[in-house]
Amino acid sequence: MTSSRTDRIPGTGPDSGPDRTDGSPGPRTTRARGAGRARRDGPGGGGTRAGGTGRSRAAERRSRRYRRDAKWSPYAFISPFFLFFAAFGLFPLLYTGWASLHKVSLHSPTDMEWAGLHNYSRLLEDEFFWNALRNTFTIGVISTVPQLLMALGLAHLLNYRLRGSMFYRVAMLTPYATSVAAATLVFTLLFGRDYGMINWAFGLVGIDNIDWENGTWTSQLAVSTIVIWRWTGYNALIYLAAMQSVPDDLYESAALDGASRWQQFLHVTVPSLRPTILFTVVVSTIGATQLFGEPLLFGGSQSGGGSHQYQTLGLYLYEQGWFNFHLGRASAIAWTMFLILIVIGLVNWLIARRLQKSHGGGPS
Hints:
Elements: H1 2-8, H2 27-41, H3 47-99, E1 102-105, E2 108-114, H4 118-124, H5 127-159, H6 165-177, H7 180-190, H8 197-204, H9 216-243, H10 248-256, H11 261-272, H12 274-289, H13 293-299, H14 313-322, H15 327-358
Antiparallel strand pairs: 1-2
Helix pairs in contact: 3-15, 5-9, 5-12, 5-14, 6-9, 7-9, 7-13, 10-11, 12-15, 14-15
């Protein structure tokens, strides 16, 4: 009697899952779990596979996006430079070259008359062009050679441990940070004929006043002095940075061999600075070729003095284009200066290559 009542109670029969003595799930529980899995898997039974496929596709898209980003983002980072260079460097260069082949007036710059190489051939016959080229070369030599020699000597002094060396480095860089207008104005007062301080100092030793602006060599020397004052400290810091990278072992070996400091400077420092010296020579030569602000402000005239005694190529270009209104001729002068700079670059490359061969392929 007891067993029959127990069999009739729901959930207590032999088929009930939780009450089975062997611990295995009953048929009802098994069927319920199977139905749940079927509902999760969907009609096709491939829900898990579909989810895995979706995740793999998302990962593949992220991988493709990462590859595209790694490939093209560097070009995006450097593109602003090329865009600005194309707008403000390449386009004016090409347009100037095109204008140099035409007769163009500043009054109507859009009206161009084809002239071919007439503007260039005219330059070869123009005595003022050759005078400006000669003045540019002379001022460049007078300003570059003393400037670099002084910079090399100052850098050698600052290379030793001096008290307050940081102050001296900042003081040497101050002229470079000074504007061209301010520096030229000060030197114009110094080189004044009647009330200049330099003539006053010469008068103390019995030398008569010198008309610095109207003399050929004196005016070029005065302009070169402005350039020397502004750029010596800048080049000295470049030399100083190069000197500090020279290994101390070289100086110690030279000292053990009995070399003095002057001999160490000649046989250790200068050969180690050869590439830096070559770099500063090229940069200073390029700057001398493009010299414009100092001679313009020194005399206050685009003609470079009453007899064009210190007119440079930059001043001659300025005079032709903005005072004589011949934009075609000015463009030809600009491209001539550009060709001169290319020649300077080629000479630099040839010298560097020869120095590299002479030193067995080492750094030159």
